[in-house]
Specification:
CATH architecture of chain A: Orthogonal Bundle
Number of domains of chain B: 2
Structural class of chain A: mainly alpha
Organism (chain A): Primorskyibacter sedentarius
Structural class of chain B: alpha+beta
Order of helices and strands of chain A: HEEHHHHHHHHHHH
Number of helices of chain B: 8
Order of helices and strands of chain B: EEEHEEEHHHEHEHEEHHEEEEEEEEEE
Strand order of the largest sheet of chain A: 1-2
Protein name (chain A): Carbohydrate ABC transporter membrane protein 1 (CUT1 family)
Subcellular location (chain A): Cell membrane
Shape of chain A: globular
CATH superfamily of the largest domain in chain B: P-loop containing nucleotide triphosphate hydrolases
Mean pLDDT of chain A: 86
Helix content of chain A: over 70%
CATH class of the largest domain in chain B: Alpha Beta
Oligomer: heterodimer
Helix content of chain B: 10-25%
Radius of gyration of chain A: 23 Å
Low-confidence stretches of chain A: none
Number of strands of chain B: 20
Low-confidence stretches of chain B: none
CATH topology of the largest domain in chain B: Rossmann fold
Keywords (chain A): Cell membrane, Membrane, Transmembrane, Transmembrane helix, Transport
Largest sheet of chain A: 2 strands, antiparallel
Number of strands of chain A: 2
CATH superfamily of chain A: MetI-like
Pfam family, one (chain A): BPD_transp_1
């Protein structure tokens, strides 16, 4: 009974839109017309077979996701290990690394767009001053570079999140296990391998799942930095769903892209979680 | 097997000093128990011997070699921890063989050594299990197996039985003692439980606030405690203390602050009349309806074998253990005799033992 208000709100704002998107993906609607036209699988057929941008967005999302489950978690782990030591100024450093996480993505995007400015940006200035002007790419204007430029900004923003989760995980590492390993003759690397890493396994699962989910729905930072350009070279599935619906006003196709994205996310996350849970139980 | 020498050992954490110049030496094959209340520095001392804690000043030598700057591994010691500290992802066999594996001993040899040790401790059927599938007692046995398999010079135990229930603790106590006799190795064992100390140790080191209070065999410490702290710490129930003035003339007796007189069997050589603390173990107090000092029964605890009686004597609580079965009720008056040759006397101010006399 006490859950009823929460369930009602959740149904209204989360479950119903989900169902509606699913229904919409089988319809043709421009967002204004009173009537939605039932078109069956035509939206899916279109995005999968007649829409070159969809596949660019798909490829970019895959690249983005692979990079996202590698770089921010690994960097976050190293930062956490470093900031778990008894350092002077440890607390402020932790706060500084976490700060980007709480900045609105759109602000991060704007900030980095300035830094990437081809004439006045920080990176251009730095490289020019270092005499490396000929090496300066057009950070966000070159279609082979733009995606990776955005990704660097994304890493900067998201690494603090992994770091905080790993820091929390490191608190659960049993001190006496480290002592026991030292007495057994383990060096730092062996202690990390046999004590720290096994203790961090649940944290690693959480970090990877959350990184995967957040990278698959990468939207705001790309939207704010390039809007998908140049020439759709930084288009992502989430962004493409948005563009189809809100800018091209083809809600049916936009919804179809969303449903595909949801399917991909579930197809990755659900098996991974059940696999890691099984492994967790085996380890017990 | 080795001797351990500790010379003027100090430990500070910043401005806070926790071990104040402690010296002691342990013989080869000795079972030493460091005992004291929590915060007395006993675990810190053990961790300094192990090399897990940096030494602020002084030296630790194992078998004649100063080991201050050696890593825990190079000291050739093994340690058993209070919470067992078993690697959760490894099987029992892997846990036991881990240190051997790190020393690059061939696999086949490790398997043989683990098997042999498991045999001694009755762990053979458990070798393929994970620690989470074991009971507390089994885990502690694995932790001991991990220590034994390395055949170290010195075994260090840090409150190994504290996490076990009372019955198991008694059983493991006997097992550890039997193991010591079998292996003949030097053991340094830390506990806050004086029963463990009394029952297992060859020699006990009593520590308080980072200082050694007394070192000796369990019975030496029990019979001749050097101060009130040691006297009160060892023995269960704890020793009774009565403060009073010792008369020089007449039959030995102590006049309590309330004016009550307690008859004694003997008195120490104090020369003149002075304030002392009388210490009598509950087991040494007897009932004496004619000559005893009056006391009122407050609590009666029959244990079966004997009866613990807490009584109020001149405003102070006195515990006595009476072997006879008595028909006592709370509120009854009893007369207690302190005329035992096993009475101890301490200086009121310094709390140090006063030498025995007549």
């Amino acid at each position: 009974m006490l859950l009823a208000p929460a369930l009602a709100i959740y149904t209204l704002f989360a479950i119903w839109p989900l169902i509606d998107v699913f229904i919409l993906s089988f319809q043709d609607w421009n967002g204004i017309n009173e009537n939605r036209e039932w078109v069956g699988l035509r939206n899916y057929y279109h995005i999968l077979y007649n829409d070159p941008v969809f596949w660019v967005a798909f490829r970019n999302t895959v690249i983005w996701t692979i990079m996202s489950v590698i770089f921010p978690p690994v960097l976050g782990l190293f930062l956490a290990l470093g900031l778990n030591q008894n350092l002077i100024g440890r607390a402020p450093l932790r706060a500084i690394y976490y700060l980007p996480v709480i900045i609105a993505p759109i602000a991060v995007a704007t900030m980095w767009r300035w830094m990437y400015d081809p004439f006045f940006g920080l990176f251009t200035q730095l490289l020019t001053n270092a005499g490396l002007a000929q090496l300066i790419p057009d950070w966000l204007g070159d279609k082979d570079v733009a995606l990776y430029s955005i990704f660097v900004a994304y890493v900067w923003q998201s690494v603090g999140f992994s770091m905080v989760l790993f820091l929390a995980g490191l608190q659960s590492v049993d001190r006496s296990l480290i002592d026991a390993a030292r007495i057994d003759g383990a060096n730092r690397r062996k202690i990390f391998e046999h004590v720290t890493l096994p203790a961090l396994r649940p944290t690693i699962t959480i970090v990877l799942v959350l990184s995967t989910i957040s990278s698959l729905k990468a939207f705001d930072i790309v939207y704010g930095m390039t809007g998908g350009g140049p020439a759709q070279s930084t288009q992502m599935l989430a962004l493409w769903a948005f563009t189809q619906s809100m800018e091209i006003f083809n809600y049916g196709r936009g919804s179809a892209v969303s449903v595909v994205l949801l399917t991909i996310t579930l197809a990755i996350v659900v098996p991974y979680m059940s696999w890691s849970q099984r492994r967790e139980e085996d380890a017990q | 097997m080795a001797t351990v020498e500790i010379d003027n050992l100090h430990k500070s954490y910043g401005a806070l000093q926790v071990v104040h110049g402690v010296s002691m030496s342990f013989q080869d094959g000795e079972f030493i128990i460091l005992v004291g209340p929590s915060g007395c520095g006993k675990s810190t001392l053990l961790r300094m011997i192990a090399g897990l804690e940096e030494i602020t000043a002084g030296t630790v030598s194992i078998d004649g070699t100063v080991v201050n700057n050696l890593s825990p591994k190079e000291r050739n010691i093994a340690m058993v921890f209070q919470n067992y500290a078993l690697y959760p992802q490894m099987t029992v066999a892997q846990n036991m063989g881990f240190s051997l594996e790190l020393s690059k001993i061939p696999k086949a040899q490790i398997t043989a050594m683990v098997k042999e040790t498991a045999e001694i401790l009755g762990l053979t059927p458990l070798l393929d299990r994970k620690p989470s599938q074991l009971s507390g007692g089994q885990r502690q046995r694995v932790a001991m197996g991990r220590a034994i398999v390395r055949d170290p010079e010195v075994f260090l135990f840090d409150e190994p039985l504290s996490n076990l229930d009372a019955n198991l603790r008694v059983k493991m106590r006997a097992e550890i003692k039997a193991l010591h006799q079998r292996l003949g190795s030097t053991i340094v064992y830390v506990t806050h439980d004086q029963v463990e100390a009394m029952t297992m140790a060859d020699r006990i080191v009593v520590l308080r606030a980072g200082r050694v209070e007394q070192i000796g065999t369990p019975l030496e410490l029990y019979d001749n405690p050097q101060n009130m702290f040691v006297a009160g710490f060892l023995g269960s129930p704890a020793m009774n203390f009565l403060a009073g003035r010792l008369a020089v003339d007449g039959s030995p007796s102590l006049v309590l602050e309330s004016g009550e007189t307690v008859a004694l069997a003997r008195r120490p050589d104090v020369g003149a009349e002075r304030d002392v603390v009388l210490g009598v173990r509950p087991q040494d107090i007897s009932l004496d309806p004619t000559d005893g000092t009056a006391a009122v029964v407050k609590v009666i605890e029959p244990t079966g074998a004997d009866t613990h009686v807490l009584a109020e004597l001149a405003g102070q609580d006195v515990t006595c253990v009476l072997s006879e079965r008595l028909d006592l009720k709370v509120g009854d008056e009893i007369r207690l005799s302190f005329k035992t040759p096993a009475a101890h006397f301490f200086d009121l101010k310094t709390e140090a033992r006063l030498s025995a006399g007549n």
